[in-house]
Amino acid sequence: MSMASIIVAIIAFVLGALLALLTIPVLVWLERRTAGLVQDRLGPNRTNIFGFRLGGVIQSFADVVKLLIKEEYYPSHIKMGKWLFMLAPIITFSAALLAFMVIPFADTLVIDGEALRMQPIPVEFGVFWYLAIGAVGVIGVIFGGWLSHNKYSLLGAMRAASMVVSYELPLGLAIISFIITYNSVDFNAMVEFQSDTFFIFLPAWGILIQPLASVILIVALFAETNRNPFTVAEGESEIVAGFMTEYSAMKFAMYFMGEYVAMNTASAVIITMVFGGYQLPYVSTQMLLENFNYFAYTLMIVVPVFVWWMIRFMRRNNRVRPSVSTDSGRAYETKVISIFLVAMAVIVDVILLYLALSPNALATQIAVTLLQIMVFVIKLMAFNMFFILIRWTLPRFRYDQVQTLGWYYLLPLSLFNLFITAIVVVGVNS
Amino acid sequence: MSKNIITTPRYGKSFKDKLYLPAIYEGCKVTFKHFFTNLNDSNAVDTLEYPEEQPRDITERYRGLHRLTHRSDDTIACVACFMCATACPADCIFIEATEREDGKDEKMPKKFSIDTLECIFCGYCVEACPCDAIRMDTGIFSLTGVKREDFVLDKERLLSHKGAFGEEKSCARN
Ligand code: SF4
Ligand code: SF4
């Protein structure tokens, strides 16, 4: 183990943890703002620190503080297994978190001939890790529901458990189709496969090669994350708050955050398996490395354009209506953020120019890695956005509809797809 | 079949409906449209920026905070009959009666308080009152405070609330 490999491993781990944990407040905020805009209202946009509202993200941090200092309350009927009652949300939360840790953010970084994986947990059997850890989350839900000694909670937990069982099968079969197609259980190899093209011009993304399996994967992962339209574990109209009825303060927050981490993990898995992971379409890592100066020039144009667009957007929207007299520092905030963005753009452009003019193998590689991480984050957020918009589009399915969909439609379809995949792959290879 | 019976067509039987994905696509189109229009110009979203902008459309029938009314000579209209406290399903009206000195009636409340933290704003107290002494026509829709005690309205506070829709005096007794 060289110095570089240790540093890269630490950076990858920290990055993974940050991506998983820091996205929670951002996702909570994103969800609330999106919900607001979809429903023709605004969502949280007031909380600020010295006038900085950042569009309302600060609200999520305020909520975290609130939940942390809230009174911990235990129902008095929970005598035995109190520690398990406390542990349950942690299980759900950490399962989702650990499952996220095998997603590659960028291609393997080669320093001094040593291949360093940009994965928080650098394993080559990522898919198996995901399948093994990802489903553990529901155990936390079952424990929580069972130990609450409450019929609503128990029903919610049972519903969650049976749903996860029903959807684990189509999910597994869909993933096996992908494993056969990509001929690997390594997430990174899957992404590399997808940087190719097929049919001459189409990017070889999973959604185009395996459309049916992709749809099944996406639907099954929606169910696994317990999000709309598959929120059968909760349900105000029939089982109150479901398995988390008896949970309060930070214990509740753990479940709540676990849902967002799970959603983030599901998005990461979907983009890695189906939407080309950290790759831009048509552009493989090798190509990026070889023609880096062209990409640098393109980026040098894209970044200022984006900053210009962002500043215009802020000036248009980060103000109050004329009918409201107090501005509460919005103009000031716009100004400071604009200056910050412009400075960032200038710095990025200077660095890119330097890299483009005087090629340096190591620096180029690091720049490419950073670029890929950026692409990954953008794709991840875009898919999270999709999750959120689906939530505000579809109503919750009835419980029997959920089961019917799982057993009568998805399972046969995924079996059929597996069958076809096997025939095609064997046919192509022989 | 009578011509007044309308048979609505049942949806969900065709293959397209069963596939469900086109429906999701249609739904997403609607949500995306709202989302992007509003994102593009969030100041055009038709909401009230409370508390800077106050609602202007509170109707006369709005059940706001309680008040105790006055008679035409500005004395308290309440005769401490306890009807409201009896009718109150939340048990949040506390009355202490005392003898009335001004010769108008026999009794009046010495203390009259409503714990609005428990009140469910059902309006039963208004219905029950035989003297039109308690009303919920103040138009006050928000009550804020920093302590629990701030939410217990005492007699003085209830008397100081003004009716928002013109009728200031009690019309039942003089
Ligand atoms: S509004 Fe209803 S709950 Fe409130 S004080 Fe009157 S009777 Fe009681
Ligand atoms: S407010 Fe009306 S009902 Fe209540 S005690 Fe006074 S007179 Fe009786």
Automatic annotation (TrEMBL), chain A:
**Record's protein name:** NADH-quinone oxidoreductase subunit H
Gene (UniProt) = nuoH
This chain's source organism reads Sulfurimonas lithotrophica
Gene Ontology CC, one term: plasma membrane
Membrane topology, from the record: Multi-pass membrane protein
Alphabetized, the UniProt keywords read: Cell membrane, Membrane, NAD, Quinone, Translocase, Transmembrane, Transmembrane helix, Ubiquinone
Give the enzyme class.
Answer: translocase
Which compartment or compartments is the protein found in? Cell membrane; Membrane
Q: Tell me, how does this one assemble? A: NDH-1 is composed of 14 different subunits. Subunits NuoA, H, J, K, L, M, N constitute the membrane sector of the complex.
Q: What is its EC number?
A: 7.1.1.-
Q: What does this protein do?
A: NDH-1 shuttles electrons from NADH, via FMN and iron-sulfur (Fe-S) centers, to quinones in the respiratory chain. The immediate electron acceptor for the enzyme in this species is believed to be ubiquinone. Couples the redox reaction to proton translocation (for every two electrons transferred, four hydrogen ions are translocated across the cytoplasmic membrane), and thus conserves the redox energy in a proton gradient. This subunit may bind ubiquinone.
Q: Which domain of life is it from?
A: Bacteria
Q: Which reaction does it catalyse?
A: a quinone + NADH + 5 H(+)(in) = a quinol + NAD(+) + 4 H(+)(out)
Any transmembrane segments, and where? Answer: 7-30, 81-106, 126-148, 160-180, 200-223, 260-280, 292-311, 336-357, 369-394, 406-428
Q: Identify a single GO molecular function assigned to this protein.
A: quinone binding
- A GO BP entry: aerobic respiration
Record's InterPro entries?
NADH_UbQ_OxRdtase_su1/FPO
By sequence similarity, the record places it as follows:
Belongs to the complex I subunit 1 family.
Automatic annotation (TrEMBL), chain B:
- Please list the residues that bind [4Fe-4S] cluster 1: 78, 81, 84, 129
Q: Where is the 4Fe-4S ferredoxin-type domain?
A: 68-98, 110-139
Gene Ontology annotations for the cellular component aspect, listed alphabetically: plasma membrane
Which is one GO molecular function term here?
4 iron, 4 sulfur cluster binding
- Cofactors: [4Fe-4S] cluster
Asked if the record carries the keyword Oxidoreductase, the reply is no
Please state where this protein is localized.
Cell membrane
Question: In terms of one coarse class, where is the protein primarily found?
Answer: membrane
Query: Pfam families annotated for this entry?
Result: Fer4_7 (PF12838)
What catalytic reaction does the record list? Answer: a quinone + NADH + 5 H(+)(in) = a quinol + NAD(+) + 4 H(+)(out)
Q: Does the keyword ATP-binding apply?
A: no
Q: How is the cofactor bound?
A: Binds 2 [4Fe-4S] clusters per subunit.
Q: What does this protein do?
A: NDH-1 shuttles electrons from NADH, via FMN and iron-sulfur (Fe-S) centers, to quinones in the respiratory chain. The immediate electron acceptor for the enzyme in this species is believed to be ubiquinone. Couples the redox reaction to proton translocation (for every two electrons transferred, four hydrogen ions are translocated across the cytoplasmic membrane), and thus conserves the redox energy in a proton gradient.
Q: Which family is it part of?
A: Belongs to the complex I 23 kDa subunit family.
Listed under subunit, the entry gives: NDH-1 is composed of 14 different subunits. Subunits NuoA, H, J, K, L, M, N constitute the membrane sector of the complex.
Protein's name according to its UniProt entry: NADH-quinone oxidoreductase subunit I
Species of provenance: Sulfurimonas lithotrophica
